[in-house]
Amino acid sequence: MLHVISISGLHVTMLAGFGAMLATFLWRRNTLPLWVPVGKVAAAVGFLTAFLYAWLAGFQIPAQRTMYMVGVVAFALWSGRNPRSFDIWWWALFFVLVIDPMAPYTPGFWLSFGAVAAILYAMQDSDGLLGLPTGRELEVYWRDRVIQALREACRVQAVVTIALLPLTLFWFYQVSIVSPLANAIAIPVVSYIVTPLAIAGALLPDFIGKCLLIPAHATMDYLAIMLAWMANWKWSIAWSSQPDSWALALSTIGILVAIRPGAIQESWFSRVAGLLLCTTLFIQPLTNHHLAKGEFRATVLDIGQGTAVLIETKTKKLLYDTGPIQGKDNAGQRIILPYLRGRGIHHINRMVISHSDSDHIGGAATLLKEINLDSMMGSLPSTNPLLANLEERKIPAIPCRFGQHWSWDGVEFHIWHPHENTIFDDQHPRKPNEVSCVLEVRNQTTSFWLTGDVEKQGEAEITERLTQTALNHLKNQNLIFMAPHHGSKTSSSQELLAALSPDEAFAQNGYRNRYGHPHPTVTARYQSMNIPFYQTPTTGAQVWSFYKANKLNEEPLLQRRYAQRLWHRPPIEVGK
User: Fold this and answer.
1) 58 neighbors 6 (Cβ within 8 angstroms)
2) CB of 568 within 8 A of CB of 561?
3) pLDDT at position 288, please?
4) CA–CA–CA angle 498, 452, 327 (5° rounding)
């Protein structure tokens, strides 16, 4: 809706046309056309008007694209040239890339240029591009002209919807089913009622402008109500994962066939075949094909001051904590759910909630509405609302206690804290941090520790539970350690770090958070022990992939990825 109101190319062009029309009216006075032709002045003023509107609208990519296209047309008129439609498109693309080389990293760049390119390609030989009848105005009746315009407008809407399928799924993991209907209503209303009234109300004197802005606001208000009602339809949005490269390639071929110019009746069979190729965009991954039995991947999400880590084995998935909540905004809706949808993950086998603090449980309620969940394990008081939510959905909730363990696809999961006799109720003498659920994920080569907000007392209990047998086993593994309590000075005790001797550590914390996490003394402690310490404000989301062996030399291998960059660590020596 914001695009339709402020940065739509149609509105930029409309205002540019109004500026050109006003310039034409004024320049025709006296002998001014003898100095500069009226058409050239109108073109220059139209481009200037488009520039001012694009600037006021924030100089977004769609507005830039339209402004440059208007500028190319104006330059062609001044130089006596007659450019083709795609020539204008290519020049606009060139100017956007020269002025803003980072533009291709934004969805608006691809959606804006993609939509216009699709229209120019599909409608190049139509009787009325964008619904405007051409050439035969005097030979047909007005009713035929209206029918033709509606037919072409519907075709344009279908072309844009089909052509943008790969881009919308790639960027947003969803396709709006109701968007053609919503656009059919919203675009004419905003373009021909709201925008003219709003622009006139802004330019005219206050006593006149108010009379125009009030109906513009009322129209937008009722339109927003109607669009919100349509958006709440159960079938209004189709969710999918981010398409693979092969699906993008096949769907692009299918789109070129489906929307190609020419009469639809004469080539409907091939167009339907093209649409069938587009269905490859909705193929969901069935398993983690890159993970074999005994291998797992940990995704440490960049969710600010909080915790959320996704553990994946070959066929199972575990989510450890669900990030923070602030008012109505929570990490589940804002980060975790979009990430899961982009990966095509609609089912979580187990959710582990370390404890009841809002920065660990904040997104759980949102995820329960959208993701299928088999079970929950956590350290929550019996009166916590999440437990009632789970009971209502008939999802088992298991208290988290030391000694619990299970195995998925050759990967072992062990609970190290809290004590096995812990009772979770509101009268529990210990604060929530100290009963945090501490989970170790282990395969043949790696031990990955998730510690929640456990503090020194809980860390001391974990140190006592680390028997010599357990320590001997851990010495033969590469140990990755989550800094407890986001690196707070009340955690990461010298005793626990000395007992575990982590090879690497990480912390999930907010950039310049008000708690000062991680504390400088804790950071210095990791540095003094020569433990690399990675923080999400610096690295972004961290993806740790733990494989059994290198395919070439059959030795253990750790693969790490930070902020979309990939490094390969040399093979880990057994017995390190």
Assistant:
1) yes
2) no
3) 56
4) 150
Alpha helix locations (H) across 378-455?
385-392
pLDDT at residue 127, rounded to an integer: 52
Give the model's pLDDT for residue 575: 31
- Residue 238's pLDDT is what? 85
DSSP 328: T
Please, what is the Cα angle at 184 between 180 and 186, to 5 degrees? 110
Three-state secondary structure of 444-503: CCEEEEECCCCCHHHHHHHHHHCCHHHHHHHHCCEEEEECHHHHCCCCCCHHHHHHHCCC
Sign of the CA dihedral 323, 449, 499, 519?
Answer: negative
In this structure, what are the phi and psi dihedrals at residue 557, rounded to the nearest 5 degrees? -140, 135
313-345 pLDDT, tens digit per residue, is 999 999 999 999 987 789 999 999 999 988 889
Give the Cβ contact number of residue 264 at 10 Å: 12
Please state, in angstroms and rounded to a whole number, the distance separating the CA atoms of residues 389 and 102: 44
Which stretches in the chain have pLDDT values below 50?
A: 1-7, 128-134, 137-138, 551-558, 561-576
CA 220 → CA 101, 190, 435, distances in Å? Answer: 35, 8, 52
Neighbours of 480 (CB within 10 A): 24
Instruction: Tell how far CA 537 is from the center of its chain.
Output: 18
